[in-house]
Every structure is written in C-alpha cells, then in structure tokens.
Amino acid sequence: LQSLLGLSHVDGAYWSLMVEIQFYLGIGLLLYLNRYQWLLPLALLWSLGSLLQNTSLHLPMVNTLGATLWSGYFTLGIALYHLVTQQRPWLACLTLVAGFVTSTHASLAHSQLHNQLPAVTIIYVHIAATLAIMASAVMSTSRIHALPRAIGNLTYPLYLWHQNTGYALITLGMSFLSPTPLSLATLAVITLICLVTTTYLEPTLRRLL
After folding, report:
1. Residue 34: DSSP 8-state
2. In this model, does residue 193 exceed pLDDT 90?
3. The dihedral of CA 31, 47, 91, 104: what is its sign?
4. Which tens digit of pLDDT belongs to each residue from 80-92?
5. What are phi and psi for residue 144, nearest 5 degrees?
6. pLDDT digits over 90-146, tens only?
7. How far apart are CA 70 and CA 164, in angstroms?
8. Fewer CB atoms near the end CB (10 Å): N or C, the chain?
C-alpha cells in the first residue's frame, strides 16, 4: 500500500506490486462478471485515457489508481494475445498501436525526469522490444514454439532473483573485474540460477502444492 499512502518501498524491487495487483483485480473482476469480451475495448480505452492523463491532465490520484504510467505495457500484451489468437484483429491492432505510443511516451517522460537515456535510444529500444515480443508471439504458434516458451519461463525467476543477487555478485566482483566482464558474468550467473529454478525448483514446488 506504499504507493497509495505516499511512502517509500521497503525494497526498491517491490514498486511494481501495486501495479500488478491493480491489473489482476481488474482482470479478476471481468472474469467474475463473465465479461471477457470487454477486455480488448477496455484495454484500448485504458491506454488512450492514460495517454491523455500523461500528456495533459496530470492528476495525481488518476495516475495512482489508473496505473497510467504502465498501462501501455499491459495493453500491448493484451493486444498481442488477441492478435495471435485471431480475436478481433482490427481492434487488437488499434490497441497495439495505442499501447506502444502510451508506453513509449511514459518511458520518455520517466527517463527525462531522471536524466537517464536519450529520447532516440528509448524509441529504438521500444521498437526493438515490441518487434521481439511480436516475433515471439508468432513463434509460439509455430513449430519452434519451445524457444519463446523457454524464454518466457525465465521471466518470473529473473524478476525474483535479479536485484539482490545482482547486488551481491557485483559487490563481490568489483575488486577484481572491470565493469563489462563483471556485468556479463553477473548476467550469466543469474540466468543460470533462473534456469535451475524454472527447470527443477518450480516443478517440484508445483507438485507439492
């Protein structure tokens, strides 16, 4: 509840939990009401409303309750799923474009606020990431579906392991490795941990549960 109360997070990686909870509650409500057909139109409206909020309105409570800085990423995923499953393709294409524009604008604003990456770099990264996700979605329906599925299985372990494990590995290696080899070694070790997690630990835990 830190986001709603304006408090700092106990752990920096937990900032996304509030956004995830908001999304899951919304999806859960649609499923409970048996209104799944509303998902795509609502995703389009959410993205367009977020773009209006982020560019013109700037209402703090709307930003907090509507997760307007992050809605574009969710709507991109919703649109891609509908495109891959061939559900309402024209509306899915509109939602895809809206999600891309909304997420790109939010990233540009966030980066400029914190003086991070140049605008052109962010736009290129967004285009590359969106194309990669679209390619992965297409591959998931083809004969080579195992590759994107394997990569997708790594995403949640990466979310869980990357921060504190990365800090520890970087701290340990700073005294004898330069930044580039240290970054690559840290990434390799964390990826290996995630492979072990998704291959052995998660199936075992699922059986126990």
Report:
1. T
2. yes
3. negative
4. 889 878 889 899 9
5. -100, 35
6. 999 999 999 989 988 888 887 776 666 677 777 777 788 777 777 776 666 665 566
7. 24
8. C
Start-to-end C-alpha separation, the chain: 28
Q: Is residue 3 over pLDDT 70?
A: no
Note the residue count of the chain: 209
C-alpha torsion angle, residues 39, 40, 41, 43 (rounded to 10):
80
For all residues of the chain together, what is the average pLDDT? 84
Cα–Cα distance between 115 and 147 in angstroms, integer?
36
Name the token pair of 122. 């962010």
**Measured between alpha carbons, how far is 103 from 95 in angstroms, rounded to an integer?**
12
Give the residue among 170, 203, 208 at the shortest CA–CA distance from 187: 170
CA distance 174 to 178: 7
What is the average per-residue pLDDT within 61-80?
Answer: 89
Q: Which of 1, 94, 118 is nearest to 45 (CA)?
A: 94
